[in-house]
């Protein structure tokens, strides 16, 4: 049985097959290929796009979705996460989708289940389905030619699980990853080039991925204001005019901090297309894990 904990759980060939299915699912409003299947979602962190995207993807394939209300679950009575998942597994679901603030928790649950586990985000570690939909969006924009393309990932690259998953995934498809962050958010490694502002390298980039300023993940105030942060890291109309690059953002966008209002309307800003692609990619992943990998 296969699980999706990190993007390396899929080979390059499997990812390309998922992309082929995603292209089909973008044009299909409803299918019955998962009819009779039951998918359980466990979201211990807030989510709009990821949770809704998985639910819509599952229902468009004919599956039933059970959302466990973690606020009223037996964990409030002292039950461990492992016992909670083992009990859910005893009800014979066909997949469990989990988001949790603890790094590595989805992977630690694999031994307690007999169905696929899909990581919908764990702490600061990984968000594999987001990285896959990001890569799919890039692939579609460049008609499959990703080799040699350069991307700047801008913002809190140290703590962002989206940045983490993309750092690991994109180089497998020939994309040169560059990181742009203030000193307090710089990546603690030397395998990627790092820069202090987006204006420093934007002229050489094919893709820019802006990240949300994740203030809730910090106990320290690093900037006097978000406007101070935005001076070097907000994507503006001026930057869009300097170079023809594809602009991505995993959402939610902090307007005029991550990306300006004007740029969000720009035709090369594909934030909403990423959301559309997310449904198709997650549908393809559900198909693969539930039907193909037993």
TrEMBL record:
L-aspartate binds at residues 77, 161, 212. Pathway: Pyrimidine metabolism; UMP biosynthesis via de novo pathway; (S)-dihydroorotate from bicarbonate: step 2/3. It catalyses: carbamoyl phosphate + L-aspartate = N-carbamoyl-L-aspartate + phosphate + H(+). The keyword Transferase applies. PANTHER family: ASPARTATE CARBAMOYLTRANSFERASE, ORNITHINE CARBAMOYLTRANSFERASE, MITOCHONDRIAL. One of its GO terms (cellular component) is cytosol. One of its GO terms (molecular function) is amino acid binding. This is Aspartate carbamoyltransferase. PROSITE patterns: CARBAMOYLTRANSFERASE. Pfam families: OTCace, OTCace_N. Heterododecamer (2C3:3R2) of six catalytic PyrB chains organized as two trimers (C3), and six regulatory PyrI chains organized as three dimers (R2). Residues 2-140 form the Aspartate/ornithine carbamoyltransferase carbamoyl-P binding domain. SUPFAM superfamilies: Aspartate/ornithine carbamoyltransferase (SSF53671). Transmembrane segments: none annotated. NCBIfam families: asp_carb_tr, PRK00856.1. Catalyzes the condensation of carbamoyl phosphate and aspartate to form carbamoyl aspartate and inorganic phosphate, the committed step in the de novo pyrimidine nucleotide biosynthesis pathway. Residues 147-287 form the Aspartate/ornithine carbamoyltransferase Asp/Orn-binding domain. The keyword Transferase applies. Keywords: Pyrimidine biosynthesis, Transferase. GO terms for biological process: 'de novo' pyrimidine nucleobase biosynthetic process; 'de novo' UMP biosynthetic process; amino acid metabolic process.
